[in-house]
Amino acid sequence: MTPRRWTLAASLLAEMALLWLVTGMMRADNPVWAVAVLVLGSSAIATYGLGRSLAWRYLYPGVVAMIVFIAFPLLYTVQIGFTNYSANNLLTEERARAYLLEQAEVAMERALPYTAHRDAGGQVRLVFSATDGSRLATPVLGEAPSTPLPLQALAGEPGEALDLRALIALRETLRPLKVTGPDGTVLAYAGLREFAPFTPLWTAADGGALRQPVTGTLYAPDRDSGFFTAPDGTRLQPGFQVNVGWGNYQRLFGDPDMRGPFGSIFIWTVAFAGLTVLFSAAIGGTLAVVLNWEALKYRTLYRTLLFLPYAVPGFISILVFKGLFNQNFGEINAILDHLFGIKPAWFADPALARTMILIVNTWLGYPYFLVLCTGLIKAIPSDLYEASAIAGASPWVNFRRITLPLIIRPLTPLLISAFAFNFNNFVLISLLTDGRPDYLNTKLPAGTTDILVSYTYRIAFTDAGANFGLAAAISTVIFALVAVLSLLNLKLTQAQEGKR
Fold it and tell me: GO CC terms on record (predicted)?
């Protein structure tokens, strides 16, 4: 068989396996995932099995990775932003209704013990011990019946009783089983040793509603809020997912109690990222220029010591600084108290907390720019400095006229990437202040040191009841803001390059 025929045969087998997988996913009621798997699998088979383009065989993994890990999460997040998806609204309406219909009260005081027996033919039946001392038996167990099995008086010996291990193995058969006692009571599986009466808490009603048997109250599905709601406004838990349109965005920008904290957090996020890059780059660049001075002794030692903050894992440095800035026991306040008689409340005062964050992040970030600027300065021809020395220029003139213009252009993209990184620097905020101190009188938790990503995290996973829909809307806004800022930075960079 030729290689071409081997390839076609392998492609045919792959297509058959793909169709089997997609069919199984359709039967499991996952049409969206079935279509996605069909598209990706078909395109892979066409590219590697039938396609003759060598370039696409190299490009295909990258394109698929971009779709799966970038485009899909982005689109999925945007879609969630238009729903009420939260800890209280996780399920679909059908699943939430089915869950509530399964809820029941178990009358264990009326439970009947049972044993399972296997006869000589290998058939299994259950034997119950009634309260009057009689023994009742079910018919031979087969597939799960649609109606309860009647219990009849036991005639003869039922056969060998099954041990606990065999009962556990039989559990999946017994769980859906229901039996009817002599008095008409329906008993359901309540454990490995007994069946008991189950009283449903809710019954199905017309229009997808639920009725409470005890009171007769009707709970209709409210598809605006995503809950089964009674006429008096009482809601059942869990709720279900519904499409709320632009509701999350209207809440974010239209509600003054949310718009105020969001605007302050956005301004602080931009200031935090910008000032961190400015201070880190200034300190790192200055140290790089100083350490490039050939007359300076022990330059290698100084460079090694100044690089140490970058070698220590960031989260360790953050936790160390958290202890150093402790108001009562930290070394920083101990020194300030000894010298000036003050103990600043670094974690309680918003301005001091923000100052502390900038100090810590500058400490963590300046070694990065020290290394970058050192490498860029080393690449500058020494002839320029020699000519400048002959002309009698000062070190400041050398820096302003030679060093800075030659390193700023290759440094600009790295400054932009550092700004983007700090714009979403969740680890620093989470470990150092956790966004606190909080704003007062807000509907959702918001801290004065929160940046947008930590604010979103708190809404989605902590204090606000896991409001994933609102968090997704904020994430979408963050993406749009970062995209706009990146485009502006790119335009400014291109404009500066055009002027040169």
Answer: maltose transport complex
Domain holding 155, by residue range, is 104-200
Give me the chain's average pLDDT, please.
86
Cα–Cα distances in angstroms (integers) from residue 288 to residues 275, 402, 499, in the given order: 19, 14, 27
pLDDT at 2 over 90: no
Residue 28 placed within a domain: yes
The answer to whether 226 and 241 have CB atoms below 8 angstroms apart is: yes
Contact 251, 238 (CB under 8 A): no
Name the burial class of residue 52, with classes exposed (0-12), middle (13-18) and buried (19+) by CB atoms within 10 angstroms of its CB. Answer: exposed
> Is residue 223 domain-shared with residue 170, that is, in the same domain?
no
CA angle 242, 243, 247 (to 5 degrees): 115
Task: Extract the tokens encoding 452.
Answer: 């947008």
284 and 372 Cβ atoms separated by less than 8 Å: yes
In a domain, 246, yes or no: no
Place of tokens 């904290």: 261
Number of domain units in the chain? 4
SS3 1: coil
AA identity, residue 251: R
**Are residues 145 and 73 part of one domain?**
no
Q: Show the tokens assigned to 223.
A: 């598809």
Structure confidence by residue, pLDDT tens digits, 84-137: 998 889 899 999 999 999 888 888 888 889 999 988 778 888 999 887 788 889
Residues 188, 313 within the same domain = no
CA atoms of 13 and 16, how far apart (whole Å): 5
- Whole-model pTM: value is 0.72
Beta strands in 231-357 (DSSP E): none
- Give the contacts of 331 (CB within 8 A, at least 6 positions apart): 324
**Pair 295, 398 in one domain:** yes
H-type alpha helices, 341-403: 350-378, 382-390, 395-398
Positive or negative, the Cα torsion across 374, 378, 384, 389? Answer: positive
pLDDT digits (tens, 9 = 90+) for 214-250: 889 999 999 988 999 999 999 999 999 999 999 889 8
Is the pLDDT at 291 greater than 90? The verdict is no
Residue 175 inside a domain? The answer is: yes
In a domain? residue 245: no
Residue 146 has pLDDT above 60, yes or no: yes
pLDDT on residue 82: 94
Q: How far is CA 200 from CA 18, 210, 307, in A?
A: 43, 11, 68
